[in-house]
Amino acid sequence: MDELELVLQTGGVNRILLDNFSFRDLKEAVNIIEGRYITEASGGITINNILEYAASGVDYISIGALTHSVKSLDLSLKAVISAN
């Protein structure tokens, strides 16, 4: 919250990333910002709790969990060039 207050005092930003906030703190931060800036929530948000975070009034939500659990697929990008 101290960093949020610093950003609000400084201004000149396009979006405020509220990273690793609890739901309660996120809701408080959105209330403090009062729509003056676009807000984005990130950190600890999953498909199971996204609705709760969305209810805070934040503008955007990033979910790293979508990419943290993905299994990779190894593909070759070698090209075959024809002599014709």
Question: Could you please describe the fold and organization of this structure?
Answer:
- By secondary structure, the protein is α/β, with parallel strands linked by helices.
- Helices cover 35% and strands 14% of the residues.
- The protein has four helices and three strands; from the N terminus they run αβαβαβα.
- Helix 3 links the parallel strand 2 and strand 3.
- The protein is elongated.
- The mean pLDDT is 88.
The outline comes out as elongated
Biggest sheet record: 3 strands, parallel
Portion in helices: 25-40%
Strand order, largest beta sheet: 1-2-3
Approximately what portion of the residues adopt beta-strand conformation? 5-15%
Rg calculated over all Cα atoms:
20 Å
Low-confidence stretches: none
**Average pLDDT level:** 88
Report the total helices.
4
Broad structural category: alpha/beta
| Element pattern in H and E | HEHEHEH
Count all strands and give the number.
3
| End-to-end C-alpha gap | 66 Å
Strand-helix topology:
Elements lengths: L1 H9 L4 E5 L3 H11 L4 E5 L7 H5 L5 E2 L3 H4 L16
Parallel strand pairs: 1-2, 2-3
Question: What are the salient characteristics of this protein?
Answer:
single chain; alpha/beta; elongated; three-stranded parallel beta sheet; 3 strands; about 80 residues; about 35% helix
Short description:
Helices cover 35% and strands 14% of the residues. The chain is α/β, with parallel strands linked by helices and 84 residues long.
